[in-house]
Design brief:
Blueprint lengths: L1 H12 L8 E2 L5 E2 L10 E2 L8 H8 L11 H4 L5 H9 L13 E13 L5 E7 L17 E9 L7 E9 L3 E2 L4 E2 L1 E10 L3
Parallel strand pairs: 3-4, 6-10
Antiparallel strand pairs: 1-2, 4-5, 4-7, 5-6, 7-10, 8-9
Length: about 190
């Protein structure tokens, strides 16, 4: 159950569809026309995980809802449990995506502002409330983004498209750790 929820949550929250604008693979639609759109890889969140971590999440050990916390049920050592626990804390990245120009929708968790109170650094995460209201996703499901022009964030409940070059630079922060970094060339509201 947890694995299915973890797998589908980003897609439920950020489901793709056709809603006007420039199409960039996987039905992602942008309001602006990017330079060289054929060079952009439109990603899903599970694309960021290593194959081993994705397999561990998709084949998570079963847990029951008999009054015990789900983490307590995973305390017994087994190959499934061990792989699942490792995947929940993994810094393993997908090497095929590094140094690529990517587009990904997600939610913003601000980490730095400029003098005009615009968000210039943030974590891009797959679901609302990540790093704030619930334990953060695995580091390989968090992207540290720098966006020099800054973003005026009017509503923290909104999702955004982020476009830029992806790297495997690890960022450690009091809110969370990320296995990926991205220098954004464009950030826009995910309009659905």
């Amino acid at each position: 159950m947890f694995a299915r929820l973890l797998k589908s949550l980003p897609l439920i929250v950020l489901g793709t569809g056709l809603f006007g604008g420039v199409a960039v693979g996987q039905d992602y639609q942008l309001k602006f026309k990017p330079d060289n759109p054929d060079d952009i890889l439109a990603l899903k969140w599970e694309d960021l995980m290593s194959r081993a971590d994705l397999d561990a999440i998709l084949n998570a050990p079963p847990v029951s809802h008999d009054g015990f916390g789900w983490e307590d049920q995973l305390s017994e050592s087994s190959p499934e449990n061990d792989a699942f626990q490792k995947a929940l804390q993994s810094f393993d990245v997908n090497p095929d995506l590094l140094d690529e120009r990517v587009l990904l929708p997600g939610f913003i968790v601000p980490t730095a502002y400029n003098d005009e109170r615009k968000v210039t650094e943030f974590f891009l995460v797959p679901f609302f409330g990540a790093c704030i209201h619930v334990p953060p996703p695995p580091p390989n499901q968090i992207i540290h983004v720098t966006y020099e022009p800054g973003l005026e964030q009017y509503n923290m409940y909104d999702a955004y498209y982020v476009l830029g070059f992806l790297s495997s630079q690890v960022v450690r922060h009091e809110l969370a750790n990320s296995a990926y970094s991205l220098q954004a060339e464009h950030v826009e509201l995910y309009d659905y």
